[in-house]
Specification:
Blueprint: E1 3-9, H1 14-28, E2 34-39, H2 45-56, E3 61-65, E4 69-71, E5 74-76, E6 80-86, E7 90-98, H3 103-118, E8 125-132, H4 140-149, E9 156-159, E10 178-181, E11 183-185, E12 188-196, E13 202-209, E14 213-214, E15 219-225, E16 228-232, E17 235-236, H5 237-245, H6 249-254, E18 258-266, E19 269-281, E20 286-290, E21 299-304, H7 307-323, E22 329-338, H8 339-345, H9 349-360, E23 366-371, E24 374-377, H10 382-385, E25 395-398, E26 402-409, H11 419-433, H12 438-500, H13 504-515, E27 524-536, H14 538-544, H15 547-567, E28 571-576, E29 579-584, H16 587-605, E30 612-629, E31 632-638, H17 640-651, E32 656-660, H18 661-665, H19 669-672, E33 677-682, E34 691-697
Parallel strand pairs: 2-3, 8-9, 22-23, 30-32
Antiparallel strand pairs: 1-6, 2-6, 3-10, 4-5, 4-23, 7-12, 8-12, 9-24, 10-11, 13-26, 14-21, 15-16, 15-21, 16-17, 16-20, 18-19, 18-21, 19-20, 22-26, 24-25, 27-29, 27-30, 28-29, 30-31, 32-34, 33-34
Helix pairs in contact: 1-2, 3-4, 7-9, 15-16
Length: 702
């Protein structure tokens, strides 16, 4: 189990505040193993740290400074927050070092030091909480350094120090201090390794969300140089942004009211990575984005921060972190949120934190800070984060996002304290001691109201451009959809026409091939029954009559014959003058169709015209293959089985059906029962031996 003591204090005298926050925390947890300290830069850091260190004795202290601290009661400025932790089942190790000019190198050194001293293995349940300076604008190098030396993936979460925020000077936000065990430092990296000694009794859960919503579709980075983008979908990026955000696009981007987002996914998991413009060069028509990733071919979309969406994003992150504990009881929640989220949330900053508290409940301590950048895994379950086979394994540095780490156990410590009420009472006590100047308070409220009004006006201005552009785009899309609809209708009609002139089996195979990404029908070997039929006496009729009469008379035969072929599951391969070549899966179905066609000829056609039909039938092996050239092909049937069917038709008595003997033996006897049959041997062209055949006579109907 994890025993905690959480306290917050504020005031003017730094020594009094330091002693007060220790008194309040020690009362809840008198024998801490480690302390997590967060403080406003308002206080003399040297005096604050020395006072707390003296009170805690040998207890190592980990933490950093921030303009805004996070706890169960909400966000606090000008305060000191202290969390004391104790557990015989958890090993806490603090490691720190000066960054200098190479953040990756100090991270590599600290990781190797921990590996040498503690000798962790991949089967350990272990995570690292990171805090450090971001003054080099390269906090992501901390992760690069650690991953280069660690033999396995370890989840890393945390946030970098936040100095004065908001500030006219951007560099002021990177001023800060780090609490590193038994020393206070600036421009340092501090790591808190948390390893479970009874890993079966504990679990970590992680949550990462932004809550920003898209206002455009995705656009591809079509011209780039690393993390510098010149064109989106072939449009110069500056022109693209102006079309949506107007001439003040830089103001909106730099104040991060609107942002360009890259969505990355692994199956159903989808996460946002916000791309910050570091350098906008209008002369060169390009924008350099943070982080230094290669954006060639990547897709970006314009997104907008809505306060309700951001609060829902925090709630979703908390739910995922809780669910990842796999039923274990949450004992501690650490939260790292971007300072720009505080700027956008403004008067509703507390709502983001309360949304997290609603998920975990009032008895679970929530501790964290608004930082200059956040570090988090993208997966929620520990097993997924540490699985090197997964594309989004490990941790990353983000911006304008919120990261959560939850710790749960099978045997939690008994918790009765309502931390929201407890921390609120601490704040109320401190305010009683403090003299409040109403004029100053009123001025602060006025300044906040003016700032929010400005934010609202700027958002309204940008949204006006977006709505206008989307309206124009909708008109273009509507016109394009109309054109596409007309083209599709023409295409469907064309396909219907082509289908009429193509064997159905070939059409089906062509469709399946295209769906599979192939643009050629595969060659294949098949066994089938082939039926060849010819209209006797039609050639002389055609020579003596007009074309329209010839075609009409031929279709009087071919139309019902074709319908019968398809009725009995056959397929017309081709029409050859006054002949039909058809294919069936088996001889029985072929015989049913042949008998039906001959009956039709003798009942419907014979009374009105002198034509008779000869039918030859044979079952055997052929090759279905593509013959011809690229500009004109045919999926042709090649093989002796087809030739034999045609030669049987030529030897057949008009009005009858001639079938090769082996094929006849495959036919269901009930189909030909009662029909006159004659067995004989015929000499076929190209055959050395006579072929045994059966000729079936179809009597004229009474």
């Amino acid at each position: 189990m994890l025993q905690t003591g959480l306290a917050i204090a504020s005031g003017e005298d730094v020594v009094s505040v330091a002693n007060l926050v220790v008194d309040r925390a020690i009362l809840q947890n008198p024998t801490p193993d480690v302390a997590f300290l967060l403080s406003s830069l308002k206080y003399d850091q040297g005096l604050l740290f020395d006072t707390i260190k003296k009170r805690l004795g040998a207890v190592p202290i980990f933490g950093t400074t921030s303009s805004l601290l996070i706890s169960n009661r909400g966000a606090d400025s000008n305060s000191v927050l202290l969390l004391l932790m104790t557990s015989k089942d958890i090993e806490f190790t603090i490691s720190s070092g000066k960054c200098g000019t190479d953040p990756a190198e100090v991270a590599r050194y600290l990781a190797s030091k921990y590996l040498f001293e503690k000798k962790p293995v991949s089967s350990d349940l272990i995570t690292c909480i990171l805090t450090g300076t971001n003054k080099h604008h390269s906090g992501y190098k901390y992760l690069q350094g650690m991953s280069s030396i660690f033999p396995f993936i370890m989840p890393v979460s945390g946030g970098t120090s936040l100095g004065h925020f908001p500030s006219e000077n951007p560099d002021d936000m990177f001023i800060g201090n780090q609490y590193c065990g038994n020393m206070l430092s600036q421009d340092s990296l501090a790591l808190l390794f948390i390893r479970m000694l009874k890993k079966e009794d504990y679990a970590f859960g992680f949550g990462y969300e932004t809550g920003w919503e898209p206002v455009t579709s995705e656009f591809e980075c079509t011209r780039t140089n690393g993390n510098t983008v010149m064109e989106l979908d072939g449009v110069p990026i500056i022109d693209f942004l102006k079309s949506y955000l107007g001439e003040d696009y830089q103001e909106h981007l730099l104040k991060q009211r609107f942002m360009l987002n890259q969505t990355i996914a692994d199956g159903e998991l989808s996460k946002n990575i916000l791309r910050f413009p570091m350098v906008v060069d209008e002369e060169k028509q390009q924008i350099e984005f943070w982080q230094p990733d290669d954006l060639a071919g990547k897709k970006l979309q314009l997104i907008h921060c809505d306060r309700e969406d951001m609060i829902n994003g925090a709630r979703d992150a908390a739910k995922k972190a809780l669910l990842a504990l796999d039923g274990k009881t949450p004992e501690l929640v650490l939260v790292f949120s971007c300072c720009n989220r505080h700027r956008h949330l403004h008067s509703r900053t507390d709502a983001e934190i309360h949304a997290i508290g609603e998920v975990f409940g009032p008895t679970v301590p929530i501790v964290g800070l608004y930082c200059s950048s956040e570090i988090s895994p993208m997966y929620s379950h520990y097993q997924e984060v540490t699985d090197a086979r997964r594309p989004l394994a490990g941790s990353r540095q983000f911006g304008c996002s919120l990261a959560i780490v939850s710790l749960g156990s099978r045997c939690p410590a008994e918790k009765t304290s309502d931390f929201v009420s407890l921390l609120t009472s601490f704040n109320a006590e401190d305010r009683v001691e403090k003299h409040i100047d109403l004029s100053v308070e009123n001025q602060l409220l006025t300044d906040k109201l003016n700032e929010y009004e400005k934010i609202f006006q700027n958002n309204e201005s940008a949204l006006k451009f977006i709505i206008r552009e989307q309206f124009r785009a909708s008109l273009v899309v509507k016109e394009k959809n109309k054109e596409l609809s007309e083209a599709k209708a023409c295409g469907d009609k064309l396909q219907d026409v082509i289908k009429q002139y193509t064997p159905h089996s070939v059409w089906w195979k062509a469709s399946m091939s295209v769906l599979a990404g192939l643009y050629k029908i595969p060659d294949e070997e098949i066994f089938a029954t082939f039926v060849f039929m010819d209209v006797k006496g039609f050639t002389s009729y055609a020579e003596a009559h007009a074309p329209d009469l010839v075609i009409a008379e031929l279709n009087r035969i071919f139309q019902p014959a074709t319908e019968m072929i398809y009725k009995y599951e056959g397929d017309v391969d081709k029409y050859i003058g006054d002949c039909i070549l058809a294919r069936f899966e088996n001889p029985s179905q072929a015989m049913k169709a042949a008998i039906a066609i001959q009956n039709f000829m003798k009942q419907e056609i014979a009374a009105q015209s002198p034509f008779l039909l000869r039918i030859g039938m044979n079952h055997g092996r052929i090759i279905m293959g593509n013959v011809g050239a690229g500009m004109r092909r045919e999926n042709a049937m090649i093989g002796d089985a087809v030739n034999t069917a045609q030669r049987l038709e030529a030897n057949c008595t008009p009005g009858g059906i001639m079938v090769e003997k082996a094929t006849f033996d495959m036919i269901d006897p009930l189909i030909v029962q009662g029909l006159p049959t004659k067995s004989k041997a015929v000499k076929l062209k190209g055959k050395e031996k006579d072929l045994e055949v059966v000729e079936i006579e179809i009597p004229v109907a009474g």
